[in-house]
Hints:
Elements: E1 2-18, E2 21-26, E3 29-31, H1 36-42, E4 53-54, E5 62-78, E6 83-87, H2 91-97, H3 100-115, H4 128-134, E7 137-138, E8 151-153, E9 166-170, E10 175-178, E11 184-188, H5 191-196, E12 205-207, E13 212-220, E14 224-232, H6 234-251, H7 254-265, H8 269-279, H9 284-298, H10 302-307, H11 310-317, H12 323-335
Parallel strand pairs: 1-4, 8-9, 9-11
Antiparallel strand pairs: 1-2, 1-5, 2-3, 5-6, 7-14, 8-12, 10-11, 12-13, 13-14
Helix pairs in contact: 6-7, 7-8
Amino acid sequence: MYYLNNQSVLIEIKTIVEKNKHKYLIGDQIYASIPQSILEISEIGANWNRALKYFTIETNLEIIKTGYYMINFDIFLDFIKKDISLITKNFFFQKIINQSLFHESFMHNIFKFKNRNLKFEDDHNIGFNEIDEYNISVLSEKKNLQKIDRFLSSKKIDSRNIKYKDLFVISNDFKIEITDKNQRVYYVKLSNLKSKYPIIKKVKLIDLKKGIFYIDNVFNWKHEIKAELFFEYKKLATQITEAIIEEIKFNSPKSELNWHLYNLTENTKYIIEEIETIFSKDDFIDSFNLMLEMFKNLKLNYLKIILENSELSNYLMSFAKTETDIEMFKNIKIRYGQLMD
């Protein structure tokens, strides 16, 4: 049994007369009695317009009054029966959710309601073995995945709706693409890892920094059940990052390599290495202009990143040897509002 989520619905309760006795119609079942506490609350008026309602069937019996009561239950997935199991803490409510009308017809409406805003592009079907192996869970709340900087995606993403600076996309070939918004998209193959870990092919997004894998899944059982799933696997995320680093090293021009590696990792050691490479040989001002030209080609202002980081800024400053070099660097820091006392 696998926990999916919790659901609240409003049940309609009709007090009817059958054989001169008051009885109670709920769904398609008639009950000789129901708990008094439920009766009392069901008679209190309330605005239930937006609640999901479980209505009674049509009846020719005399109806004395109609009330409503909110019940709460948990939804579990039964991978053996390929069906759902509904459980509630209240014994009487359990009788209601066990009704065939509730379990089959009404739950169909529940899932239709739940699925209405879940637009899945891929129809993956995660099995119990995968859930068990990776400890896959259901997202308990809607995650805001509108910012996915440095995520790995299973396919290209429409940048009009989602924000990122650097994105990594699984592809058949390696390439680097710069969008009209100066976003960098790295297409990577990950051939070996995809073979070793087939689950990667079913993942929608991977937060490489946190090691969180997101999956959009559809269980096509008696009901169509859409579920946003996730699992944490920091070690695999690290392996993926290392594999991307190797692809970038193999495919990128040497002059751009460290900048691309910083885009992936945010590790300032790559910027330090590149500063040393650029400034250790030539005149400071000439080297600085060369670096700015590289930034134009890369379409990212790394200078702002350097100046906002005291370690990087001080390291760059250490290459300024003459009065002219120092004055020029101070003017640049003033321009960027980063002059330190």
